[in-house]
Amino acid sequence: ECVVHWFKRDLRITDNRGLSLAGSKAKEAGVPLICMFVVSPQDYEAHCTSKARVDFDLRSLQVLKEDLEGLDVPLYTATIEDRKNITSHILGKCKEWGAKHMFCNIEYEVDELRRETTLVKKCLEAGINFVAVHDDVVVPPETLVTGAGKQYSVYSPWYRSWVKHIHAHPHLLAECPAPVTNHSGARQKFTSLFGDSNPIPSTPPNKSLSSEDRSRLLSYWPAGEHEARERLNRFLETRIPKYKDTRNLPGENSTSLLSVHFSAGTLASRTAIRRAVAANKGSNGKLDAGNQGTITWISELAWRDFYKHVLAHWPYVCMSKPFKYEYADIEWEYNDEHFRRWKQGKTGFPIVDAAMRQILGMSYCHNRCRMIVASFFAKDLLLDWRQGEKYFMENLIDGDFASNNGGWGFSASTGVDPQPYFRIFNPLLQSEKFDAQGDYIRKWVPELRSIEGKAVHDPYGRGAMKEAERSGYPRPMVEHKGAREKALERYKNGLGRG
Ligand code: FAD
């Protein structure tokens, strides 16, 4: 007999609600806790998971496995070629091990919810009590409703309600205790049941990184929950007080760089918020009091919950449909050459190119720059935002469906709480405002490193044409003013048809 916890995007022991419940149940029943993790290459394909993300998850899994060994808890792992077989595989293993209870944390995407629903049914028939709990969000979806009893689709009132709800239910931020150590020998006994040495799943060939890319990503993004907590500590000690004033400046190392950990579940947003509030001396335990930097950081983390609530309530956003269906009929350009130049960071707009090259270099990009390049993609190039959304998932190490879809919807004005379509970012003004000294541009676009002063924002328009030509930096691929007019027209026509 045993109790099983099924790990997914919750690759940590600390403050993990599903794992904590599984641990308590095992202790109460006096039986061992067994953990499992299954992957399917088909899931990677269906979700456009980036190579960087696969690598990060598997590195984090290695750390998790070692930590579980310290508790004498075995970790069963498997690669299931056909993802349709995942549920029957899990059920088969639970039966084989004599599990009476299984726990997991809920994922809100449609495929995952369906999978869990199937498993609930199968487990019920097999006499196994399967419990899936909310863990990835602080406030469970469908909890917050407007005065009219509807789901919020605008962030600000939703945020006020989110804060109020957490203040009224402080247990939502409470730490979930880690499981206790298994009775001795449990790991050995079950590991021999698993067969072979039960290694960390290997990376499918089409998701393998070159060794050069792997070591580069390793240095930017050390994996696992210990690293996540250290990174959080450093951020709380040093950068959070100034976060409100600096978070939009991509040239400064001012944000937490924790998104990869929230996405892999090596850190819970609940833990991060609880710790930030505790470190905020003037907050008196409130999320919206005390230091402005901390308040702002928590309100950014709230966006993560907001987009997951949106996804859970309007699952059609998972199906390549715009949240606002009246925007479904915009006539997009499908210009491969433009798409290629955007991906390579060769648009001739320095701030856009710096951001796209940051993605190529780090598999990550600053939030302000994600907005700039997404707006440029949809509004200046009139490319279908879904192609950009997919490219982000295929290349970001922190790829998260809800946040990515939400960010693209916002920038392309097709999503929940969007920028109105007629508010179009001017890349040059964005560049001057948020990268005033051009540090970020010079860091990521070597061709422009020797260009001094303001010309770095627009070398061909500001008297640095010769240097830009010499270094091979391209001319702007579109003219912003004209592109803006065209976008306004297309959006208006699309709305007319929609
Ligand atoms: P910090 O500034 O330190 O913020 C703390 C945390 O708050 C982040 O780690 C993240 O979990 C959350 N957060 C901050 N801003 C947002 C936001 N706008 N939406 C949702 N959550 C937010 N974030 C992802 O995690 N995965 C994605 O795939 C993703 N795609 C995006 C695509 C677009 C077009 C845009 C505009 C934004 C996207 N974001 C995504 C949100 C945001 O850009 C990143 O979370 C942020 O840049 C991560 O850096 P950080 O950890 O240093 O953030």
Give a brief outline of the structure.
By secondary structure, this protein is of the alpha/beta class. It contains 22 helices and five strands.
Bound molecules: flavin-adenine dinucleotide
- pLDDT < 50 runs, ≥5 residues: none
Form type: globular
Fourth-level CATH superfamily of the largest domain: DNA Cyclobutane Dipyrimidine Photolyase, subunit A, domain 3
- Percent helix, as a range, is 40-55%
Order of helices and strands: EHEHHEHEHEHHHHHHHHHHHHHHHHH
Task: Enter the CATH topology name of the largest domain.
Answer: DNA Cyclobutane Dipyrimidine Photolyase, subunit A, domain 3
Report the CATH architecture of the largest domain: Orthogonal Bundle
The top level CATH class name of the largest domain: Mainly Alpha
Main sheet makeup: 5 strands, parallel
Q: Would you write up a description of this structure?
A:
The chain has 498 residues and is an alpha/beta fold. The chain has three domains: 1-135, 3-Layer(aba) Sandwich (Rossmann fold), CATH 3.40.50.620; 137-174 and 216-313, Serine Threonine Protein Phosphatase 5, Tetratricopeptide repeat, CATH 1.25.40.80; 325-497, DNA Cyclobutane Dipyrimidine Photolyase, subunit A, domain 3, CATH 1.10.579. The protein is 52% helix and 6% strand. It is built from 22 helices and five strands. The protein has helices spanning 17-29, 41-46, 51-70, 86-97, 110-126, 155-168, 186-194, 211-220, 225-239, 243-246, 259-264, 269-279, 292-313, 336-344, 350-362, 367-380, 385-395, 401-412, 427-434, 439-444, 465-471, 480-497, and strands spanning 2-7, 33-39, 75-79, 99-105, 129-133. A five-stranded parallel beta sheet has the order 3-2-1-4-5, sandwiched between helices. Helix 13 packs across helix 18 (401-412), helix 16 crosses helix 18 and helix 17 packs antiparallel against helix 18 (401-412). The structure holds flavin-adenine dinucleotide (FAD). Flavin-adenine dinucleotide is lined by residues 247, 255-259, 262-263, 300-301, 303-304, 307, 366-367, 370-371, 374, 392, 396, 398-400, 403-404, 406-408, 411. Residues 191-211 are annotated as: Disordered. Belongs to the DNA photolyase class-1 family. Keywords: Chromophore, FAD, Flavoprotein.
